[in-house]
From TrEMBL:
PANTHER family: TRANSCRIPTIONAL REGULATOR, GNTR FAMILY (PTHR43537), UXU OPERON TRANSCRIPTIONAL REGULATOR (PTHR43537:SF5). The keyword Repeat does not apply. Coiled coil: none annotated. It comes from the Bacteria. Keywords: DNA-binding, Transcription, Transcription regulation. The keyword Lyase does not apply. GO terms for molecular function: DNA binding; DNA-binding transcription factor activity. Signal peptide: none annotated. Pfam families: FCD (PF07729), GntR (PF00392). InterPro entries: GntR_C, TF_FadR/GntR_C, Tscrpt_reg_HTH_GntR, WH-like_DNA-bd_sf, WH_DNA-bd_sf. Residues 8-76 form the HTH gntR-type domain. It comes from Rhizobium soli. This is DNA-binding FadR family transcriptional regulator.
Length: 237
């Protein structure tokens, strides 16, 4: 039986309810879980929250996600799945939303401080990123370098460090697993083009355009991670 969830770390609470359902045998090994939309309705949460919960269970080995087919309970084995500690880790979509709010403001201020040297640094990062779209690890490192370089324009070391820290939250096991499904050369190419729009606004010294370009970039990043694992067509929550 499902119980409506309280609004704190919803994805971990949702994962716990789904884990209980599986361990009780209500969905047997090899069977497909209900569609994301149905799970979201029954638990009273958004589909992105369900997606984050499913990622937790896959990291634990309880389920298998088959893109375009659905989510299936893993076959039983002699090895018990490792249940991850119920911590207060931020979910991937929480991280992206936080970055959108914070980095948009950073880009706005950076546009007031940008000079030829800082723009040249962005150009160098973008040129290297353009040649690394097939290498996710390198593209990720260059993506981080781009965002921290913008924060660095303001000349506040604490702000630069904070930007790096919040970016590095996407290296969690949950975010890494989510990225393994939705990130690839096509998404890095899209991010590169969005980075160029941000660079252009910064180079023009236009705070409003820089803020909007960053907001649009990180909003689209959230959208790229919001596809469905299942068979039904994607619809925004």
């Amino acid at each position: 039986m499902f119980v409506a969830l309280e609004p704190r770390r919803l994805y971990r609470q949702a994962a716990e309810q789904l884990r209980t359902l599986i361990e009780a045998g209500e969905v047997r090994p090899g069977e497909r879980l209900p569609a994301e939309r149905e799970l979201a309705e029954r638990l009273g949460v958004s589909r992105p929250t369900i997606r984050e919960a499913l990622i937790v269970l896959e990291v634990e080995g309880l389920i298998q996600i088959r893109m375009g087919s659905g989510v299936y309970v893993s076959a039983r084995s002699n090895r018990q799945p490792e249940i991850l500690a119920a911590d207060d880790s931020d979910g991937p979509f929480e991280i992206l939303q936080a970055r959108c709010l914070i980095e948009s403001a950073i880009a706005e201020e950076a546009a007031r401080k940008a000079d030829s040297e800082s723009i040249a640094k962005l150009n160098s990062i973008l040129a290297e990123m353009e040649g690394s779209l097939d290498d996710s690890h390198q593209a990720l490192a260059l993506d981080r370098a781009f965002h921290t370089a913008i924060a660095d324009m303001i000349g506040n070391s604490a702000l630069n460090r904070f930007t790096g820290l919040i970016y590095d939250k996407r290296l969690s096991p949950y975010f890494t697993k989510l990225a393994s499904y939705f990130e690839g050369p096509h998404t890095w190419k899209a991010a590169l083009e969005e980075h160029k729009i941000i660079r252009d606004a910064l180079a023009a010294g236009n705070p409003a355009d820089a803020r909007e370009a960053m907001r649009q970039h990180l909003t689209l990043s959230q959208k790229r991670f919001s596809e469905s694992f299942g068979e039904e067509p994607t619809r925004n929550d």
